[in-house]
């Protein structure tokens, strides 16, 4: 439990600051004033309109942050002496097993690229201005 807590707390402050900043920025937008003028309730305006637009930069940041989390897993698994991909990569580096290092690194890069692709597809769902062309 402690290793996952260490990894989670590491990026929590930056994500919460990003969400807060995006929410404050979007609360002053024209579409929010228009929604309020139409008589839509405040909970729906904030929950649907503002939050949806605030999640766009947050999703992009989290996709990029995944690379740091994957790299941080190597360090965390080494500190807590946990068996895992990070520990296997560390052991392969220490034992000069180049093919294993390349294989694990390639797998982690593919995971990172697929996550970025999924987030880019998610942008079309979150932002109504982005449509398939």
Task: Write a structural description.
The protein has one domain (2-126). Helix 1 (2-27) packs antiparallel against helix 3 and helix 3 (42-80) runs antiparallel to helix 5. The radius of gyration is 20 Å and the shape is elongated. It has 133 residues and is mainly alpha-helical. The chain is built from five helices and no strands.
Give a brief outline of the structure.
The protein has 133 residues and is an all-alpha fold. It is 84% helix and 0% strand.
Count of extended strands: 0
Main beta sheet, described? Answer: none
Shape: elongated
Low-confidence residue ranges: none
Overall residue-averaged pLDDT value: 87
Number of domains: 1
The portion of residues assigned to helices is over 70%
The rounded Rg comes to: 20 Å
Would you tell me the structural class of the helices and strands? mainly alpha
How many angstroms does the end-to-end distance come to?
45 Å
Query: What string gives the helices and strands in order?
Result: HHHHH
Q: Number of helical segments?
A: 5
